[in-house]
Design goal:
This protein has 5 helices and no strands. By secondary structure, the chain is mostly helical. It has one domain. It starts with a helix and ends with a helix.
Amino acid sequence: MVRRHALRNALVPILTSSAIASASLITSVYLVELLFNLHGLSDVFVVANSQAFTFVTFDPAPAMGLAVYSVLIVVTLTFLLDVLHARSIRLTLAVARSTS
């Protein structure tokens, strides 16, 4: 009884908050790498931007790559969240009532 009614309705806010939290965690990883001096995506981004300030040939590809990477992560997580929301009982009942 609890699983069928309460748990399925309680999953909607849990899924929403977990998707938003995981998207922000993954996309802000370069800040953590910068703060703790870890080598990863932040090195590519810092080197690309430091060349712009020294008037050496600026290569915008790494900065654009990091932006595209972040956007793809957020779009993928949002799509998965929408698919999981579609399986929610509240949305299924609302769609069934509006079509009939």
